[in-house]
Structures are given as structure tokens and as C-alpha cells.
Write a structure and sequence with these properties.
Number of helices of chain A: 6
Largest sheet of chain B: 6 strands, mixed
Distance between the termini of chain B: 38 Å
Order of helices and strands of chain A: EHHHEEEHEHEEEH
Number of strands of chain A: 8
Helix content of chain B: 25-40%
Oligomer: heterodimer
Strand content of chain A: 15-25%
Strand order of the largest sheet of chain B: 5-6-7-3-8-9
Shape of chain B: globular
Radius of gyration of chain A: 16 Å
Number of helices of chain B: 11
Largest interface: A-B, 36 and 39 residues
Radius of gyration of chain B: 21 Å
Structural class of chain A: alpha/beta
């Protein structure tokens, strides 16, 4: 069951160009991440699920492909997830995340929503939030959607492209 | 540059085996599949000849990122250019201008649709990691028979009520003539490929058969095909290479030059001359049709010979579905 306080939706999505959003999340992560972020329980789960890798310590991750790596060699999607989770004051370009990150974006928003706080992301493509019920607000017009059909039908027009 | 380009990139831990068929290849898909690693390998191999990275390719492979991309790209020729998703200007007109002007082949990592670039729906890929074997690209969208792109497994058994075409000239003239005697079916022109999505969301009644030029439909593919995926009873999407391709295939493929161009298009299209295969097919059709009396192809006005029933039947056989025939 979703629990949302009236007026605060679980996930807020600004679709299309957003000048204030952090576009290059990999660069931002490189210069701003903190060691303790990596050993956080949620981060461990995300790294294991997305990158199929195991956190060994603050600055050490075991990757099945790359061997032992630093957090700087995590995938772009995982870096963005960590930033969305740890830097709520910024809006990040979540089009650096694949569809396999969508459930984690919803989870981050759910956890923050339990603290009556908003989660806002910028999307420049139609991320697939899956077939399970979800709830997000398309900030461009303040509409709330709870299924992918509506998200595509309403959100797609903000992707841009001169007609 | 012409022809398919094969690239093999490896270091001690990973290997990538790619084949690029056209001038613009877009790579997207799940996170954690090795896209960033590929870009890093290209960048490191380019910057250091002692990197320990092996790159096998008939053309130089270069990595383009945020810093000084304008100056670099304006000077690069005859190369495969890998473009990082962090390049903020990737969706801009300036970047698109240089992509078209420089004639290089491009591998662009982006989930964001790039509306300024004419890339094919067939050249959008996901990265498929494969353990100890080479990572490779797999198409994000695959056509079923008759050039239908059907993300949904379900499909309605009902007839169509609207044929929606992107074209407002020759293509529209052909399809409008074709369906005018089919009861309950009308042909509508969206006016351009980028207006198809808007038309579909503003006209939510009836069942729509969309016909658009796949060769340059890449930027529109996500939102239109996802509409089809979530509303499979409402629409089907048919993306042959282009209307000109349909005419070439149906009416001129007994010409050996045309047949070879259709079969091995990659070998015929010079990226320095054509931004997309769509442009190539238009030029080819214009050239070959000129020598057949009454068949000279013009985009603005279709010669009557193309509207003759027998010729129309040959074209429609390539895409006919239910009552659209």
C-alpha cells in the first residue's frame, strides 16, 4: 500500500529539458561522493542489483567483470541512484539510469515520503516504471499518474522535438 | 564512409564486438551492462598507445566528451566517434549539424531521444553483456513481418479506421488513393514524423495504422512504440525504411542495381553524401524511375503510374495488414 501525505506525491518527475538539474551525474558523483554512502544498506542493495557487484568497503567494490573497483567505476545508473538518495537538495538527470533502476527510484521516493519529504528527478526519456502500481506526479502539468500507459500518453509530449 | 564497420575492442578483462551498419548508432538500455566501460576503453586507447587496450577497426575510433567537443568534432573525419551520454549538447542543433556535416560514423550513448538526428529505428541498440565472451549490441526494436514494430504481445482482431502517415505529399497521395474505396477507413497525414505522437494523443478514437519512414524514425520510436505497447488495441506501427524504399522494392527490384542497393544498402550509402538511408532511397528512386516512361518520381507530386491498381497492389503487398491493403 502506498502511503502519501496529501499534497506530497511519492515521486515528482520533471520531463524534458531542465536547466537547474544536474545533467552529468557521473562528474558530479566523482567530485562529491562520500565514502560512507557506499556502505549504506540501500546503496549495497542497489549496487548488488544493478551492477551485480558486492561492496567490500568504503572504497572497494567487487565486480564480476572488472574485478575490484573504486566507486568511480560503478555504472552511471547506480551513481545517479546514490545521488538521488543522498543529495535531496539537488535534482538529477535520471535519464542516466536504465529501466532496471526504476524500482529503486520508486523505493528512494517511498522512503523519503515516509519522512514527508519530496523526491524530484528530471527525465529526458520515458523510463519504464513497470507493471506494478506506482504513483508519480508529472511536474510539467501537475498531473498524477499511476500506470505506464498514462505516463507515456501524458509525459511523451514534453520530450521535445520541433514539429 | 561506406559500408558496415566492424569493431573489436578488448583489454585483459572485457571484450566488445560491434558491427555498425549506418552512420548513426544509438546505444541505450539497462544500467550496468558495460556501456560506460566501452566508452572508457575507446577514450583510454585513443589517449595512450601503451594502454594495453586492443582496438581492431578499419577506421580510427575516437571518444568525444564534454570538453572541447566542438573543436575536436569539426576536425575529425573518416572515423568512428563514440559520444558519451554526459555530453550535454548531444540533443542540440549544433551537435547535429556536425554529425551530418563531418560524415563520420557515430556511436551515441543516450536514452534521451535525439530529435535533431535522422537515425533509424533499427539502429537503436542495447548492450548485451555475455560473461567471458564479447559484449555485443542487440536491437532495441525488432520488426515482425511486414515491418510492424509490435512491443505488445497482444493485438486486436479489429479492422483499422485510420491510416496515419507522416508524409503530406507523395506518400500521402498514394495511401489516400489506396484506401479511399475501403469502407470505414480514411487516410490522414500527420504532416511530419514528429507530429505523429501528438496526433495519436489528441485523437483517441478508432484504430490507427501508422506508416512512417523507419530510416529516420529513431527519435520518435520510444514514445510512439510505447503508446502502441500500452494501447495495443488502438494502434499498430508500420515502419518500412521509407515510402521510396517501398516503391523501389515493389516496382524496381528487377533492376539488378536496385536489387543490390536494397539488399546491401550499407555498402552503397556514403555518409559524406547522405545523412540517412532515407535520403539515399529517395535519390535512387528518382534516378532509376527517370528512365521508365511515366514513372519519374517526384516527392511533391506522384506520377499517375504509381496510383494504378496493379502497381499499388505490389506496394501494399509489402505492408498489408487486415483491411489496410
Amino acid at each position: 500500500m502506498l502511503t502519501t501525505r496529501q499534497g506530497i506525491e511519492m515521486l515528482n518527475v520533471q520531463i524534458g529539458d531542465m536547466p537547474d538539474a544536474i545533467y552529468n551525474t557521473a562528474v558530479f558523483f566523482k567530485h562529491n561522493y562520500q565514502d560512507e554512502w557506499i556502505t549504506d544498506d540501500l546503496t549495497r542493495q542497489m549496487i548488488e542489483d544493478i551492477d551485480k557487484s558486492k561492496v567490500l568497503g568504503d572504497n572497494l567494490i567487487e565486480s564480476p567483470v572488472l574485478g575490484r573497483i573504486s566507486p568511480l567505476s560503478l555504472s552511471g545508473g547506480v551513481k545517479t541512484l546514490i545521488l538521488i538518495s543522498k543529495v535531496p537538495s539537488k535534482v538529477f538527470n535520471a535519464s542516466t539510469c536504465g529501466d532496471n533502476c526504476a524500482r529503486w527510484i520508486l523505493e528512494i521516493a517511498r522512503r523519503r515520503d515516509a519522512q514527508h519529504k519530496k523526491t524530484v528527478i528530471n527525465l529526458r526519456h520515458l523510463m519504464d516504471f513497470g507493471n506494478e502500481p506506482f504513483r508519480l506526479r508529472i511536474c510539467n502539468e501537475g498531473v498524477i499518474v499511476d500506470n505506464m500507459g498514462d505516463f507515456v500518453r501524458i509525459g511523451g509530449k514534453y520530450l521535445g522535438g520541433a514539429e | 564512409m561506406k559500408g558496415p564497420v566492424k569493431i573489436d575492442i578488448r583489454d585483459r578483462r572485457v571484450r566488445y564486438a560491434l558491427e555498425l551498419k549506418r552512420n548513426i548508432t544509438v546505444v541505450r538500455g539497462d544500467s550496468g551492462t558495460g556501456k560506460t566501460t566501452l566508452f572508457d576503453l575507446v577514450r583510454d586507447a585513443e589517449s595512450d598507445s601503451d594502454s594495453g587496450i586492443t582496438v581492431s577497426c578499419d577506421h580510427p575510433c575516437v571518444a568525444l566528451s564534454n570538453f572541447d567537443w566542438r573543436e575536436r568534432l569539426s576536425k575529425i573525419r573518416n572515423s568512428v566517434v563514440f559520444v558519451d551520454e554526459g555530453l550535454k549538447d548531444i540533443g542540440g542543433s549544433e551537435f547535429a549539424f556536425l554529425v551530418k556535416k563531418t560524415g563520420n560514423y557515430f556511436v551515441i550513448f543516450s536514452r534521451e531521444p535525439l530529435f535533431n538526428l535522422p537515425y533509424s529505428v533499427n539502429e537503436i541498440y542495447c548492450m548485451k553483456p555475455s560473461g567471458k565472451r564479447a559484449h555485443r549490441l542487440v536491437p532495441a526494436y525488432k520488426p515482425t513481418s511486414k515491418h510492424l514494430y509490435d512491443l505488445s504481445k497482444s493485438r486486436s482482431d479489429n479492422d483499422y479506421t485510420v491510416v496515419l502517415v507522416e508524409d503530406s505529399k507523395a506518400g500521402y497521395e498514394f495511401f489516400a488513393t489506396r484506401v479511399k474505396d475501403i469502407a470505414g477507413l480514411v487516410c490522414v497525414s500527420a504532416g511530419s514524423k514528429s507530429k505523429i505522437y501528438r496526433w495519436l494523443t489528441e485523437n483517441e478514437r478508432g484504430r490507427v495504422f501508422v506508416i512512417a519512414d523507419g530510416a529516420a524514425f529513431g527519435p520518435e520510436a520510444e514514445r510512439v512504440l510505447e503508446l502502441q505497447n500500452h494501447f495495443p488495441d488502438r494502434l499498430s506501427v508500420c515502419l518500412p525504411e521509407s515510402f521510396e524504399w517501398l516503391l523501389l522494392k515493389a516496382l524496381f527490384s528487377n533492376n539488378s542495381e536496385v536489387a543490390d542497393a536494397l539488399e546491401n544498402t550499407s555498402h552503397h550509402v556514403d555518409s559524406n553524401e547522405f545523412e540517412s538511408w532515407e535520403q539515399f532511397f529517395t535519390r535512387l528512386l528518382s534516378t532509376v524511375s527517370a528512365s521508365t516512361p511515366g514513372m519519374k518520381y517526384r516527392k511533391n507530386r506522384l506520377a499517375k503510374a504509381y496510383l494504378v491498381r496493379q502497381n499499388g497492389d505490389k506496394v501494399m503487398r509489402l505492408i498489408a495488414t487486415r483491411n489496410v491493403k
